[in-house]
Prior knowledge:
The protein is an all-alpha fold. The protein has helices at 6-12, 14-17, 26-36, 58-71. The longest helix is centred in the C-terminal third of the chain and has 14 residues, at 58-71.
Amino acid sequence: LAGTGTQKFLELDKKQFGNAPVYDRLEDAVRDAYESATKGDLILFSPAFASFGMFKNEFDRGDMFLKIVEKL
């Protein structure tokens, strides 16, 4: 997700992540992961930063993630 630490993270792990997509909305990231997954895959939501610009707190972020997954 786009945020204050995103660019720093991508620069540190460029070899591992290459041109990893950056999303402005959690819904877009989850949808893309879901559409890229195949039967038996696991989608792990493990944020590296707080995302205060998008969510009130970690609980708000987790609740939003669960709501998006339930819609899928």
